[in-house]
Write a structure and sequence with these properties.
- Helix content is about 75%, strand content about 0%.
- By secondary structure, it is mostly helical.
């Protein structure tokens, strides 16, 4: 007789749906809207990037407040509110005319992102999974890649046939339906269903599961803070500007949508693979592998020279490499903290990541205005950030292993 799957996997699906909305649709797929927002409103490149800055600012603030937020609210309620904020943000974009209104919409989307992405999902998986926690995190995060699987082409078609406002409103209704489904699936703790977490401590290698076993020292944070800032730059800001990079290099709107879709597919595969490889190869080897993919993708994206083949190859490398900035930093938080400080570590790592997204959010637009509309200089900078981040985090793992 077959056993029913543990309800933890239903909770995992609910967390994945929230991430799909607050991160996948609100951030990853949103890059499709940016060239149209820029063109139809007559915004400068700097103003276009400033919308990302506003979103990053409110994300950063809401992440800072996520501790008291989730102490007052259950994970289920808090994630539902985050999804509602994302929905509201898209309806506001659909009604916006002019920069202040677009900035308000971006701010609301940012609030939903800050309290509705990896911070609550990591806490949720920590409560529901003893075994397979990294895999569950990877699967949740991987679903965000579905937002670029066909959706960019669909959005492009809707925008060009029905208009920008209609596309925003349609996505708002879609997000609302998915958030409702997620809330119906999620339970904050196994006790809410009279259950125990998935797995058994007897089958878990405790040394690997909480590899850090100590608090991070001050000198560790002196290196870790710039690492997280750089991760925010090449992940959040870098991915948000893919469309303007490719359009600036002469690619059509449909080729750009194809590139975003392709990067989303490889990102989804990369996030799923990260959890599996991290358990089999260990964090250090996994960091090297994904770091090389990331750096190669960023560098190649600067030299596509109008070649669709090179563009797709760049996205095939950049996509999975971005798993370092999603599943990776959550895994780093667990590896470099103790079980008692895990929740706080996840929040701090995510705040550092968000701060990087905020700090560097206007840089691509400013550089593009300085260099004749080209976003290539920004992506060369992101490549430097990637190299520094990988070398830096490996140094912290070496420090950990020596203690």
């Amino acid at each position: 007789m077959k056993h029913r799957p543990h309800y933890a996997w239903a909770v995992c699906a609910g967390g994945a749906l929230i991430l799909f909305c607050t991160s996948g649709l609100a951030v990853n797929a949103f890059t499709i809207f940016q060239p149209y927002i820029l063109a139809q409103n007559g915004f400068t490149n700097a103003q276009s990037s400033l919308l990302v800055t506003v979103r990053s600012l409110t994300s950063f603030v809401s992440m800072l407040l996520s501790g008291p937020y989730y102490r007052r609210l259950s994970l289920r309620a808090g994630m539902g509110i985050a999804g509602a904020l994302t929905t509201a943000g898209f309806f506001l974009f659909g009604a916006a005319s002019g920069f202040p209104a677009c900035a308000l919409a971006a701010a609301v989307v940012g609030l939903g992102y800050g309290v509705g992405t990896m911070i609550p999902v990591a806490m949720l998986m920590e409560r529901w999974f003893i075994e397979k926690r990294t895999l569950a995190l990877g699967l949740c995060s991987a679903v965000t890649g579905l937002s670029t699987l066909g959706i960019p082409s669909l959005l492009t078609r809707i925008i060009e046939t029905r208009g920008l406002r209609f596309a925003f409103r349609a996505e708002g209704f879609f997000i609302a339906a998915l958030v409702l489904a997620a809330v119906l699936l999620i339970r904050s703790r196994p006790a809410d269903r009279g259950m125990e977490p998935y797995g058994s401590w007897d089958r878990v290698n405790h040394e690997d599961f909480t590899a850090g076993g100590r608090e991070l020292a001050r000198r560790d944070w002196l290196l870790l803070v710039p690492i997280l800032l750089c991760v925010g730059a090449f992940t959040s800001v870098g991915y948000s500007h893919i469309t303007v990079l490719t359009r600036g290099e002469g690619f059509s709107a449909h080729t750009t949508a194809l590139a975003v879709t392709f990067s989303g597919v490889t990102l989804m595969l990369g996030k799923s693979a990260y959890g599996v490889l991290e358990e089999r190869l260990g964090p250090v080897r996994t960091n090297w592998l994904f770091g090389v993919l990331l750096l190669a993708g960023l560098l190649l994206s600067c030299f596509t020279a109008g070649s669709t083949t090179l563009l797709l190859l760049a996205m095939a490398l950049y996509g999975p490499g971005l798993a370092l900035g999603t599943v990776g930093i959550t895994t780093w938080a667990g590896d470099l903290s103790t079980p008692e400080t895990y929740d706080a570590a996840v929040r701090r790592f995510q705040v550092g990541y968000a701060a990087g997204g905020l700090l560097f959010s206007t840089l691509p637009g400013l550089l593009a205005d300085r260099f004749g509309g080209s976003y290539v200089p920004a992506y060369l900078f992101f490549a430097l950030c990637a190299a520094f981040s990988v070398l830096g985090i490996q140094s912290l793992y070496r420090r950990r292993d020596r203690t």
